[in-house]
Amino acid sequence: MKEKQETAAFWKTFGLAALLWAALAAGSELLFPSSAVAPAGAAGLLRSCLVLPVAEELVFRGAALRLLRPLGRNAAILGQAVLFAALHGSLRAKAYALGMGLLFGWAADRSGSLLPGILLHIVLIPVLVMAMQKARLILN
Questions:
Q1: Residues 24, 100 contacting (CB under 8 angstroms)
Q2: What CA–CA distance (Å, rounded) separates 78 from 67?
């Protein structure tokens, strides 16, 4: 019974995080149209779409979130999100990363697992790459 409740809570958290991510991604693209260049080749795509998302989730929602936990749950979520945002390039990327860091941190804290953030992060990058390519085609 407990396992079913944990599974249901995990998927509920994943679903809520996915909806929040979609709203943030759409709003961010409307407010700040992207001009970044997509990664080059299959190796760049693999790096951007699989390796980096897993590594970032392990570092920020895994290690940083747990190391900051003595400050309190909310402070830990905010702290890891600020660190996550600080390592992203432009102001636009930092703002978007801060929102994603808060969302993924909340999902990790609520579910007790890195899996929601890893899955959303892996889905997020290809969607953003496609959106950037489409925006470049429209603008050119």
A1: yes
A2: 13
